[in-house]
Specification:
By secondary structure, this protein is an all-alpha fold. Helices cover 56% and strands 1% of the residues. The protein has a two-stranded antiparallel ribbon. It is flat and about 125 Å long. The N terminus and C terminus are likely disordered.
Length: 492
């Protein structure tokens, strides 16, 4: 006899896939005479495969659940707690009684999750161009309601309560978000088609429109689609997928055949698998007119419809009892016709208009940002050119200094007199006032005038130097220095 995986329901899927499946108390075994019957070897039962929740904190959720179910006290409380009490947070209070080892591991998991969120916040800030702006992680962590950001170090009762309530709310809205994404996909596809038509001439546009209508009609021309979850739809699966006689259709047998993990429930994935035959009537990946994204949206619509009709306790699972009750309803025996996606446009004309306006605004913002980025690039290039020019000047200066150093140029020796140094005649020239320069030029012989004799020139030179308080040439100099002054006392 196969042991039941669930006592009341699968925790991970029942609580919106919040907790992993837990083992319930096994049925009382039949007494066996061990002297006559050899017991078969026990093989460890593999845990059921976990289901992807689609939540951005899915890994953190799973890791918390994995460690909670290792605590015996917590597992026992779970089996004795009503689903509604779990959603209301009563189970979270049992966290105070779990083992120290489990609590320590939960603390570590929470710290890792807080660090992950901080990294995501910083990365988003960098992408938005706020590298130099101080990030208030504490304030931004408020947006993550599934943990208590005021206490980033320890996992408390409030953290488990937040995790349960957040997962419940987020998973309830998960399908709604998927529908919104599909609507945007459809509007973008139509927008691109319209933009493409604008690039064509009149004849090409007419041919394109005719081709579009032809593909649309071809897609709509398909066999009748059975109402999801109806007797006709399930009988078709029974016959074509299971290879059984439709006259022998039995709901309970059908349920057991398609409860692929044997947990006593139809989860969302097992339900969606039942609609494959119906979807194949509408969609073929080899056909130009069939869009596989639309096929997955159709599958989602079918699953949602069955869940709304059959899942009476709204735990996102269909138990055997719920399934059997549904097979006795009029909707199961005499269903209404099922309207496919092509009969239900995903968006309204008003939504399409708003979507295109939003795209136009986004394009305008991107263009403005591109202009601003180009200006920044030009400015950076200008600054780079300036830096390159300065670098070249610096290199030239260094090379010049190196050349001077290699030449080892020494200054000329100074000329001294007793008591005072003889000033350089060029220094005297540089100290002349403009009037004195003019006076000096008057004493300079003209090009056509006759040259002064050396004696007359020396007399004139001595007179000029005397007026400036300087030693007169030759006879005022000490012996040995007169020759040194030759060739330097001619004032231009």
């Amino acid at each position: 006899m196969r042991s039941s995986i669930h006592n009341k329901m699968c925790w991970s899927r029942a609580l919106l896939i919040l907790l992993v499946q837990l083992l319930s108390v096994e049925a009382v075994p039949i007494r066996i005479d061990k002297t006559k019957v050899k017991e078969p070897e026990k093989t460890p039962e593999e845990p059921p495969a976990s289901v992807e929740t689609g939540l951005h904190y899915d890994r953190y959720l799973r890791e918390v659940i994995d460690f909670l179910e290792k605590d015996q006290h917590f597992r026992e409380k779970l089996h004795n707690t009503d689903m509604e009490d779990i959603k209301q947070g009563k189970l979270a209070k049992e966290l105070d009684f779990v083992s120290h080892h489990v609590r320590t591991k939960l603390d570590e998991l929470k710290r890792q999750e807080v660090n992950r969120l901080r990294t995501l916040i910083k990365a988003k800030q960098d992408l938005e161009g706020g590298n130099d702006i101080a990030v208030d992680h504490q304030a931004l962590l408020k947006q993550f309601e599934y943990l208590n950001h005021m206490n980033p170090h320890t996992f408390e009762v409030d953290d488990l309560d937040r995790l349960i309530k957040s997962a419940t709310k987020d998973l309830e809205n998960y399908d709604k978000e998927r529908h919104e994404e599909f609507k945007k996909y459809e509007m973008m596809k139509e927008h691109d088609r319209r933009e493409h038509l604008k690039t064509l001439d009149e004849d090409e546009r007419k041919r394109e429109e005719e081709h579009y209508e032809e593909m649309r009609k071809k897609h709509a021309d398909h066999p009748k689609v059975n109402h999801p979850g109806s007797q006709n739809q399930l009988k078709e699966v029974w016959e074509e997928a299971d290879g059984l006689d439709p006259e022998d259709f039995d709901p309970k047998t059908f349920f057991n055949l398609h409860d692929t993990n044997g947990d006593g429930f139809f989860d969302e994935q097992e339900l969606e698998a039942l609609f494959t035959k119906e979807l194949e009537k509408i969609y073929d990946p080899t056909n130009e007119e069939d869009d596989m994204v639309e096929m997955e949206e159709e599958r989602l619509r079918m699953r949602e419809h069955v869940m709304n009709e059959v899942d009476s306790n709204k735990d996102r699972l269909v138990s055997l009892d719920e399934f059997l009750v549904a097979t006795k309803k009029k909707e199961f025996l005499e269903p209404d016709s099922w309207e496919t996606l092509e009969q239900n446009q995903a968006y309204t004309d008003e939504e399409m208009r708003e979507f295109e306006e939003h795209l136009a605004q986004q394009e305008q913002d991107l263009n403005l940002k591109a202009v601003d980025l180009q200006k920044q690039r030009d400015e950076l290039e200008r600054q780079q050119e300036q830096l390159n020019a300065q670098k070249i000047e610096l290199q030239q200066a260094v090379e010049h200094m190196e050349r001077l150093k290699s030449q080892k140029v020494e200054p000329p020796p100074e000329v001294h007199v007793e008591g005072n140094a003889i000033p350089d005649i060029h220094a005297v020239d540089s100290q002349l006032h403009p009037g004195q320069e003019a006076q000096s030029q008057e004493h300079q012989p003209a090009a056509h005038a006759p040259q002064d004799t050396p004696q007359e020139h020396n007399n004139q030179q001595n007179q000029d130097l005397s007026q400036q308080g300087l030693p007169q040439a030759h006879h005022d100099l000490p012996p040995g220095h007169q020759e040194a002054l030759q060739g330097q006392h001619n004032v231009p």
